[in-house]
Amino acid sequence: MPVITHAPDTGIWLLSTPRTSYALRIDVTGAPCHIAWGPRLTLEEAAELAVPPQPEASSFEGRPPVGEELPVDGGARFGPPSLQVRFPDGTRAFEWQPVGHEVEEAAPGVSELALRFRDRVHPLEVTLRYRVHDDSDVIERRTVLRNAGDRHLTVLRADSAAWSLPPLPDYRLSHVTGQWSAESRLHRDRLPHGETVLTSRRGITSHHANPWVMLDAGDATETHGRVWSAALAWSGSWRITTQRTPDGRAGVTGGAGHDGTSVPLAPGEEFTTPVFAGLYSDDGFGAASRTWHEYALAHVLPHPREIAPVLYNSWEATGFDVDEPGQTALAVRAAALGVELYVVDDGWFGARRDDRAGLGDWTPAADRFPSGLRPLSDEVHRLGMRFGLWVEPEMVNPDSDLYREHPDWVLHVPGRARTELRNQLVLNFARQDVADWAYGWLTRLVADNGVDFLKWDMNRAFSEAGWPGREDGADRLWTDYVHNLYGVIDRLRADHPRLRIESCSGGGGRVDLGILSRTDQAWTSDNTDAADRVSIQHGYGQLYPARTMAAWVTDVPNQLTHRQVPLRFRFHVAMAGVLGIGGDLTRWSEEELATGAELVAEYKRVRHLVQHGALHRLRGPEEEGPAVVEYAAQDGSEALVLAWQLVHRHGGPRGPVRLGGLTPGAHYRDTRTGTVHHAAVLAGYGLTLDLPSGDWASAAVHLVRVPARDDA
Ligand code: DGJ
């Protein structure tokens, strides 16, 4: 069945996904207007919802601020414009003039609708693009602008899309906020009337907010209720504005750039916004998250079907004190634990002994690696592991040869102080020469040292974001920077198809669907305390799949929180994502090493479920009792349940948890105890978790469907 259909008589376009519909049409003024987004409809049914615009109630009203596909600046519109362009005559009003449309098969199973417009007065072309995959409810939207004239334009705002919700009795907004080492705190609050702005002004996605929202009527739960959600695929500054209007509507507009940034558009130039994807789910927040996860695995990640290896990372063990003998000793122990990828973190290059010097000088430190990195890389490979390296290509310490040679490669404004954060400055990746330099040393580093994995870090926000020597530089650098960052990663990946990359920005400062389309996983947070991680991971997993969520087991007391948490609990928390080890293995006791090896082996037996299964959040960290998640195989053949009891309260709730994703009527064997359960009991009444009493009790229960003939 075609997924994009059109009724020429009503002018309605209908986008159909497996479980949802999205309908729009161009109204009598030429403006693209929203009709419906929700459960499946036919074109005929959608026509019933295409209510003609009501006459304005008074001279104080204009077009409703929610209900257009991309509200512009112009006419009687008083909401936040999703599109605002300054024309050569200084005006900003845009009037939609439809000039055509196309539907095409962009790739097998992917259909795209392009609605083409231009301004009635100025030669600006605007195309709204909608992409639908035949196996996902996610709709991808973006906007393309083209300056078809011979004079310069300035794009003051170009959102990727505006999403409109139906009228509901109430609205609730779910989103995450945070800070360094405290990312992804989930908030679920009543949507305020007026405009609510979520944004990053830092040049990166940021720890402080993440570019996605979920909206519901205030009645959705993990398993029930209607949820509308949108997520932006962009790794620089961004802005998402939700609106709740006096007439009881709600909508979301979002795109790249924060308030006050603009994009110059030269004659003939085209600007394509990032994707702002959206999905509707009938079955609560759990189903919305699973749909995002499946979409990311099927259509975003570069190697979606791969199983991520168990990694070791040296950062918490050695800090900057990195040398060949020390790393070799750790690598030997890591290999014995079952680690598959050994990553040398910060401190291997130049004069990098602390965070004050050396950043930018990407040659191995001669005193620490006298023969370069190759001997260590060879040893790691000989031990049967892959070899990974930390890099921070976008940064420079003023105390470095690179800065001494190229002081104006950094973002700066002449005559103003250069703010150093973590003693470093941001290299202007928007400059092609800087991007080419980074690509050059990175591709050589990877080729010369047998590097299989890069941890690509970025440890500060932009400040004094100027680009001297380029008149429009301070405007265009916000987007050109991100495009060049993407370009360097894309070129590297093309040169080294086996290279895998982890996105890191002081932990989770650059996690979004844009960076995840060209990296393989993300470093979730510098906070490795297992107790804090439970809620950080809970927030992360609302949008992003566990396949991308790197999680390490580190030493106690935790470096950041000083908390003591048992090793098994730390493992059970880290096993909810891509397991890594970050402790100083040279100090682990024989018993700890044996427990670690046992738990790494256990993770390897279940990681296909964690990384590729369907996540069911059975009890959240904010609820009383142990937090519980389940990862069910897509075909219902297995499930893994992880439970974490942080603080034990005597008499607190410890009731059974009802599992999802099981095959009705089947039986499941607990691989540890051998107990066989009925799916009907597990799904309808629940699994009783036998957690010992006391703080830090945890469990990993692996259930495997019993083959039908053994079903007794
Ligand atoms: C910040 C990262 O998040 C850490 O894991 C570590 O790589 C440090 N940077 C190194 O400087």
Would you give an account of this structure?
The protein is an alpha+beta fold and 712 residues long. Strands 6, 7, 8, 9, 12, 13, 15, 16, 20 and 21 form a ten-stranded antiparallel β-sheet that branches. It contains twelve helices and 37 strands. Strand 7 (110-119) and strand 8 form a beta hairpin. Helix 4 (324-337) packs parallel to helix 5, helix 7 (432-449) runs parallel beside helix 8 and helix 10 runs parallel beside helix 11. The relative contact order is 0.09. The radius of gyration is 26 Å and the shape is globular. The mean pLDDT is 96. (2R,3S,4R,5S)-2-(hydroxymethyl)piperidine-3,4,5-triol binds next to loops.
Topology at a glance:
Blueprint: E1 4-7, E2 12-16, E3 20-26, E4 32-39, H1 43-49, E5 83-86, E6 96-107, E7 110-119, E8 124-133, E9 139-147, E10 153-158, E11 161-164, E12 172-177, E13 185-190, E14 194-200, E15 212-216, E16 227-232, E17 238-244, E18 250-256, E19 263-265, E20 270-272, E21 276-281, H2 284-300, E22 311-313, H3 315-318, H4 324-337, E23 341-344, H5 374-382, E24 386-391, E25 395-396, H6 401-405, E26 425-426, H7 432-449, E27 453-456, H8 473-495, E28 500-503, E29 521-523, H9 530-540, E30 549-553, H10 567-574, E31 578-581, H11 590-612, E32 614-619, E33 627-632, E34 638-645, E35 667-670, E36 676-678, H12 679-684, E37 697-705
Parallel strand pairs: 22-23, 22-31, 23-24, 24-27, 27-28, 28-29, 29-30, 30-31
Antiparallel strand pairs: 1-2, 2-3, 3-4, 5-10, 6-7, 7-8, 8-9, 9-20, 9-21, 10-19, 11-18, 12-13, 12-15, 14-17, 15-16, 16-21, 17-18, 25-26, 32-33, 33-34, 34-37, 35-36, 35-37
Helix pairs in contact: 4-5, 7-8, 9-10, 10-11
Bound molecules: (2R,3S,4R,5S)-2-(hydroxymethyl)piperidine-3,4,5-triol (DGJ).
